Amino acid sequence: MTRNDTPGTAGTPEDEHDLRISGGTVVSSFTGEEFAADVLVRGETISGVVPPGTPAAARAHLDATGLLVAPGFVDAHMHIESSFLTPRTFAAVTLARGTTTVLADPHEIVNVAGAEAMRWMIEEGRGTAQTQLWGVPSCVPAVRGLEHSGADLGADDIAAMLRWPGVVALGEVMDYRAVVGGEPRMRGVVGVAREHGALLDGHCPNLSGAELSAYMAQGIDSDHTKNRTEVVLEKARMGMLMMLQEKCLLPEVVEALLALPQLPPLCLVTDDLAADHIVRAGHLDHIGRVAVRAGLPPAAALRAMTWTPAQRLRLYDRGVVAPGKRADLVLLRGALGDFDPAVVLAGGRVVARDGAPEPESQGGAGSAAGRPAAGGPLTGTVRAASPGPEDFRWLVDLPDGEHTFRAMRTNPRDTYTEAVEIVLPVAGGEVRWEGRAALVRVHNRYGRQGTVFAPLLGPDLAPGAVATTYAHDSHNLLTIGTSPAAMAAATAQVVADGGGVAVVHGDGATAARLPLPVGGVMSPAAADEVAAGAREVRSALEEWGWRHLNPFMSVSTLTLAVSPSLKITDMSLVDVARRDPVTATV
């Protein structure tokens, strides 16, 4: 910025603007038009959008020649913990990619440590240049009676938390089967949120027909999960706001939406993106590019990243470049559909240039390298002993011989796990699974009893293992491996790190690790350090043979008992559709 001493802009200091952005092309998120205009800013507010050269005194000038001036991006559904970063560090690295506002649902860390964890998250994000709003997790644990987490929130707890400053929503109602079935606890949780006037976010993959009506009748009016194309259209025509994350942005889905007589309101959302992905590929800007590649017109993608999510969050002061609106702005290089941020402003201040934060302008956010956050009360939450190979012997009360077991089958595209059968020998009360399948083990990390095993099919794995406490949503200790020795080595590394992810190749050599000592799901380290660790883990998983569009989510959702179809918790295998525990044997 430079001081503006342009002749012909006389006025009293009270009439002077703080900033003039000139030479750029404004993009209207209302009409999709691009038009030449100068943008004036006073304080945190856009004070004018005027024809180029219009006389107006300004204390500072920002040259936007060759750039598009767009509203700051608004992410209406995401989880900060999925980045493995604390809120302050997350703010810095995502502001640099143009995300100026988020609604964060901290159901990962709240499942670990309850209301205290949510207070910590809010405080960590307070004072950053990014607007961080919050949703109270609706499912802690995700499915009561089928798993143990570190906390248990009822309707009264949620009612109290909805009164906290910055809390505007009930986080995604994942236990949709309980809502549809009229289960009293979930009806009570939803009821207190409605009484409070909070937003109600949904999670109901492929829910349709009468069940969808029953779910929406409770006031839950959004969905961000992957659905069949016909279900996307059904939900949209019913007025459910479709929030499209990367795995939802298939060409056939976009084509079907565009073929409707009128394009329904849409939000583009990130949901779960790890630090290495954000640093390498971007945040909501990346989702915008994915949407355009899938066939969504750039102007429609911009609207789904700005105006529509702002309206969803009842933030009527943003989402469009217009006088009187908050000066959250992204100056974009190239064509609109490139979504390539050159300069980012939040509340009228430049907070990032060329993908890097401006440290002096970030307030509490710091830089991407960031001032690390202390874990506070959220360290030391992994209360599990370091295991040995003997802890990974799958013991059963079955006679010697071959038996049919339920197995989980993954796929390389999404988090759906198919229930299949496998015949395995039993000898001396032990299942002899090695060489025939991989093994999944979930062990309670909160000091409770609870260890469950299941065979895993799908990936073609070399000798090795992965262990993690980042395991949705109760974040118990999850291990997958091809031998007890490898599984013990990976798990021992995670326990020693106070939580995190570790990959072992062979029978014991650690190939990569990402310590996550904050609740077992986040790191207090700088963004670049966390991104490097996540990148090494991702690479080690792929080298091991775990091929997936999002390997972190593929591994960590094996325990998500609300996500179809067969999952595993510290209590049992779970038939998600029936919402019932099932036995290991068929």
Largest sheet: 9 strands, mixed
Average pLDDT reading: 94
Distance between the termini: 69 Å
The number of helical runs is: 15
Note the overall shape. globular
Number of DSSP-assigned strands: 31
Low-confidence stretches: 1-12, 362-372
**Helices and strands: which structural class?**
alpha/beta
Strand order, largest beta sheet: 22-21-20-24-23-26-25-27-28
Proportion of beta-strand residues: 25-35%
Radius of gyration, in Å, reads: 25 Å
The helicity comes to: 10-25%
What tags apply to this protein structure?
586 residues; alpha/beta; globular
Could you explain how this protein is built, in words?
- With 586 residues, the chain is of the alpha/beta class.
- The chain is 25% helix and 27% strand.
- The chain is built from 15 helices and 31 strands.
- The strands form 6 sheets. A 9-stranded mixed sheet has the order 22-21-20-24-23-26-25-27-28. It has a 7-stranded mixed sheet with strand order 3-2-7-16-17-18-19, covered by helices on one side. It has a 5-stranded parallel sheet with strand order 8-9-10-11-12.
- Helix 3 packs parallel to helix 5 and helix 10 packs antiparallel against helix 11 (298-305).
Present the secondary structure layout:
Blueprint: E1 17-22, E2 25-27, E3 34-36, E4 38-42, E5 45-50, E6 58-63, E7 68-71, E8 73-78, H1 87-95, E9 99-104, H2 107-125, E10 131-136, H3 155-161, E11 167-173, H4 176-180, H5 184-196, E12 199-202, H6 209-216, E13 222-223, H7 229-237, E14 241-244, H8 251-258, E15 266-268, H9 275-280, H10 284-293, H11 298-305, H12 307-312, E16 329-333, E17 340-346, E18 349-353, E19 356-357, E20 401-409, E21 418-427, E22 430-431, E23 438-443, E24 451-457, E25 464-468, E26 477-481, H13 484-496, E27 500-505, E28 509-515, H14 527-544, H15 551-556, E29 566-568, E30 573-575, E31 580-582
Parallel strand pairs: 1-6, 2-7, 8-9, 9-10, 10-11, 11-12, 13-14, 14-15, 20-24
Antiparallel strand pairs: 1-4, 2-3, 4-5, 7-16, 16-17, 17-18, 18-19, 20-21, 21-22, 23-24, 23-26, 25-26, 25-27, 27-28, 29-30, 30-31
Helix pairs in contact: 3-5, 10-11
